[in-house]
Specification:
Length: about 450
């Protein structure tokens, strides 16, 4: 029976040209799976960088081979955005890919016309319930303090990306026509980063981890936190139906491996950040900003709140054109993921679906002292400042510190936050606009610098 399946799959190879190839040893057919991922997009690491580094997919497939099944070969293809992954899936050259919410919609829209390119949205990698994974940054010397200050300016974004989607929605809410009120330059993230640094654009709107990276490098300041939209933003996995119908065991192995990677990240977020940093070239401090406590919620389930936001994203995609109508309910398919949960035992899919908490435990406020392998947690931002104060008094160097924004809950760098002192409390905000909103309701709050707050906190 297995031989008959192999023969049928080999016959399909003559049509698709990408699913099977003869093994180098000449011992039989090898099932090939091509995975498209984005190494620098921290929100996809459980289906990309971390998954690859841990070797979970290869281990799952090897178990099938060792049990008498076919041999498998995994090819990893790294891209900067979701658009080229979709192009390769349309061409039937990538079998499984991960990308952000807007690119996922575009993927479903553009692949649906082809019988062998059509995809299913099969799992989520990670999400932020308020939208904080996408942000708008400006140069450090920019006079802009709100989105309204960008009217008539050039903004870099990857059109059709999650970062672009946030920009479109944010500008619309600010009363600025995204099509005529600003000039959006369609640029890849690294090109946009260079354009921002050289002064060719007034701002850059991108997805995780670009805003955090540029701010960490001292090349940008945060102007707009996507959490202000209070709309979930997420990344997920798509798979070509033609491929997974012929090789359902590969999709099952992939989803099992993604669950393995997710569990590893939950249990050892700092170690996971090191692996992702090594595999992506990103600083570990930037990776841990997102995958540490209080950051991205890494959860594979297709939660109703995310799908509702997904459907609402369509109108924004339609506003920029080139989007064919998509049956989203037909595109979203949790059957394979439910099967993967059932095979593992333990937590059921429905129980995981109902649990919307972040499984990476901790307050989100942490101090990372240079030379130490663990961070020091703080109950709140004021206690964090006290820990930093004490570390400095001992002559220790603080590698970085993370705090949760007092208004929106976004995890951010403590030294890059906007700080206010309100009585005995010190409150951090991701943006100047957020701090001003707080001061409007609490006129007694006083602006302080980060270093001033560290010095003034009562020990």
């Amino acid at each position: 029976m297995k031989r008959l399946i192999a023969v049928a799959a080999a016959a399909a190879l003559t049509l698709t040209g990408c699913s099977l190839e003869q093994s180098a040893a000449g011992g039989g057919d090898t099932v090939r799976v091509v995975v498209g991922y984005q190494s620098k997009t921290v929100n996809t690491v459980t289906a990309g960088t971390l998954l690859r580094a841990k070797g979970y997919l290869e281990q799952r497939l090897r178990a099938i081979t060792d049990a008498g099944g076919a041999a498998y070969e995994v090819e990893w293809q790294d891209y900067d955005t979701g658009a080229p992954i979709t192009a390769q899936m349309v061409a039937e050259k990538i079998d499984i890919g991960s990308m952000g919410d807007y690119p996922l919609l575009i993927n479903g829209s553009r692949t649906q016309a082809g019988e062998r390119s059509r995809t299913d949205f099969v799992s989520v990698t990670g999400y932020n319930p308020k939208g904080a994974l996408n942000m708008v940054v400006v140069p450090p010397d920019s006079p802009a303090t709100t989105l309204a200050d960008l009217r008539g300016q050039k903004i870099s974004a990857s059109v059709g990306s999650a970062g672009h989607g946030t920009l479109v929605q944010a500008l619309t809410r600010a009363g600025i026509d995204p099509g005529t009120g600003v000039e959006v330059l369609n640029q890849q993230p690294q090109v946009g980063a260079s354009a921002l640094e050289s002064g060719q654009v007034a701002a850059l709107s991108q997805f995780v981890a670009w805003p955090g990276l540029l701010v960490f490098q001292g090349k940008a300041e945060l102007l707009y936190d996507g959490a202000e939209l209070n709309v979930p933003t997420f990344h997920g996995v798509v798979a070509r139906q033609d491929y997974t119908e012929r090789h359902p065991e590969v999709l099952d192995a992939f989803l099992q491996a993604q669950l393995d990677a997710t569990e590893f990240l939950h249990g050892a977020p700092l170690a996971a950040a090191k692996l992702v940093a090594d595999g992506s070239g990103l600083p570990q401090e930037v990776v841990y900003l997102y995958n540490g406590p209080g950051g991205t919620t890494f959860d594979t389930t297709l939660e109703p709140s995310l799908i509702a936001a997904f459907k609402d994203d369509v109108r924004y995609l339609e506003s920029i054109g080139d989007f064919a109508e998509l049956d989203i309910d037909g595109f979203v398919d949790d059957a394979a993921l439910r099967k993967a949960f059932a095979e593992r035992g333990g937590t059921t899919y429905d129980a995981a679906l109902a649990d919307t908490g972040n499984a990476t435990t901790g307050s989100g406020n942490e101090v990372w002292v240079d030379g130490q392998q663990q961070t020091r947690p703080a109950a709140d931002p004021t206690e964090l400042l006290r820990i930093v104060n004490q570390a400095r008094a001992r002559g220790e160097t603080v590698r970085t510190a993370y705090v949760l924004d007092a208004e929106l809950g976004t995890r951010w760098f403590a030294n890059e936050s906007v700080w206010l002192r309100d009585g005995d409390r010190f409150l951090p905000f991701t943006t100047e606009a957020a701090a001003q909103r707080y001061r409007g309701a609490h006129p007694g709050a006083v602006p302080v610098s980060y270093d001033q707050a560290v010095q003034e906190v009562r020990t």
